[in-house]
Amino acid sequence: MSEPLRFGLVGCGRIGATADERVKSWPMAGVWLPYSHAGAVVATPGAALVAVCDVDGTAARAAAALHGAPAAYTDAAEMLTRERLDVLCIATRTRERGPLIESALAHGVRALYCEKPLSNTLEDADRLAAAVREKGVCFVYGTKRRYMPVYHRVRERVRAGEIGELVSIVVKSGVAPLLWNHPHSVDIATFFAGDAPAESVQADLDLGESQIEGDTLDGDPPIRMAQIRFSGGVGATIVAADSGDVELHGRAGSLCVRADGAEVRVRRPASGVDLGWLLDESAERVAEDAVRNQEILFAMAESELGGGRRVALPLPRRGLRITGRSGHLYA
Ligand SMILES: NC(=O)c1ccc[n+]([C@@H]2O[C@H](COP(=O)([O-])OP(=O)(O)OC[C@H]3O[C@@H](n4cnc5c(N)ncnc54)[C@H](O)[C@@H]3O)[C@@H](O)[C@H]2O)c1
Fewer CB within 10 Å, N or C, the chain? Predict the structure, then answer.
């Protein structure tokens, strides 16, 4: 048998290491677990969590103990140098992600699993994606709803013609900040639009307490309503409505996935329950997918800053910085 792949984790916070315990109390825990990066690595055949790292040594040691990792570090470069990792999971906040990706590439990792969003500017996202591509490194992004089997099964039903030609997608995401939550909304819409490129975006964001100065939007404004027009004609609407539902509206009916699979409703007869994560399909994407996702989010900000105008993609301004108020709650 071949040696297990050597995984390392940097960022031993909630999504990196600690969230599984909390998720156990969720009604859909069976669908979501394992939830943390460390928990997922440990549950994956052929993978070994050989080291974890956090600038907070207590967090690193606690994560190592919780998930059975033999080594805990406070410096990612030291972990990368000593551990000869095949795969690095990056679960820090956004600001730290770029330097960690670059360091991992310089240390010769073969694959990266990066949390979302990729960066706080599109120019950083462009540069990171080019660096990942240049090194030929496998890339997986934290927009994970597309790996849930329920969405695959529903997409098959749409493709089989159950609701006729798909016209529009509605993603209900609650009142949620742009970079913190909506990489997920944009990605699930993109998934159902057949991964077609987005042509234009229009958005109404709640700028609230965000400060805008020059090329900096200091904040992470929630989406009230945003629309994406995909090449090929499918439209998607993201709306600040409770539930987490994803609705697919076709010319001959509609399908609704409630709360990531609690229920699948069809406007015509059949309905059923689809649960469980997709384990048997390659999760690999390319870093440019993350840039495309992020460009849609930045176009929403540009639309709001431009008084709600429709914004065409690709975006000419790559230097807008959305801080996410790092150190505050978000991104
Ligand atoms: N995909 C998802 O469903 C999902 C869910 C939750 C969070 N996230 C994303 O994951 C990221 C992390 O969120 P969180 O809530 O787990 O954050 P968190 O603050 O709980 O954890 C981040 C950890 O990274 C550590 N850290 C920061 N800089 C570091 C460095 N240079 N080297 C090593 N460790 C470092 C911090 O000390 C902290 O322990 C966010 O960007 C968020 O958007 C994704």
Answer: N
